[in-house]
Design goal:
By secondary structure, this protein is an alpha+beta fold. It has helices at 38-45, 54-67, 69-72, 111-129, and strands at residues 24-35, 83-92, 95-106, 137-147, 154-155. 28% of the residues lie in helices and 30% in strands.
């Protein structure tokens, strides 16, 4: 098992020093799934929810969340993102799959930014739809792929 880098030799928390790492292009893709009643998904898909266009609000929330990751996650480096994209797919009649792709040219990766983006987008969908469906569930928040840095390319295998 790899060393836990956010603790020093005495077990105290620390922010990892990345000053010796090379500046490279780094990308990360994350995903999440929101499960809901088919009627709720129909309201979202048809843009008939009273609060507005759920997916466009969730997209903006996800992008904003990615930009604030360094403020939300202790010991996470604040980075100037080069780009964040958030997309949605209707996987079936009762779920929405969210994907986020984050990019940066930096000394540290953007996995946490991509994961934060899908998490905040999913929470926004829940918040906007909870008045019609309290049974919604946010599931499968996971890193799908990352590139750049010393550890190289990672891609999640088939389930």
């Amino acid at each position: 098992m790899a060393e836990l880098t956010h603790f020093d030799s005495e077990g105290a928390s620390r922010m990892v020093d990345v000053s010796s790492k090379d500046v490279t292009l780094r990308t990360a893709k994350a995903s999440a799934v929101v499960l809901m009643e088919p009627a709720t998904l129909a309201l979202i898909r048809d843009r008939r929810l009273a609060k507005g266009d759920v997916l466009e609000v969730a997209r903006l929330a996800g992008i904003m969340g990615a930009k604030r990751t360094g403020d939300l996650i202790p010991l996470c480096h604040p980075i100037g993102l080069d780009g964040v994209e958030v997309s949605f797919q209707f996987a079936d009649d009762a779920s929405i799959r969210i994907e986020a792709l984050a990019r940066v040219t930096a000394r540290t990766g953007v996995e946490m930014e991509a994961l934060t983006a899908v998490s905040v987008a999913a929470l926004t969908i829940y918040d906007m739809c909870k008045s019609v469906d309290r049974s919604m569930a946010i599931t499968q928040i996971q890193l799908e792929e990352k590139t750049g840095g010393r550890s190289g390319h990672y891609r999640r295998g088939p389930d």
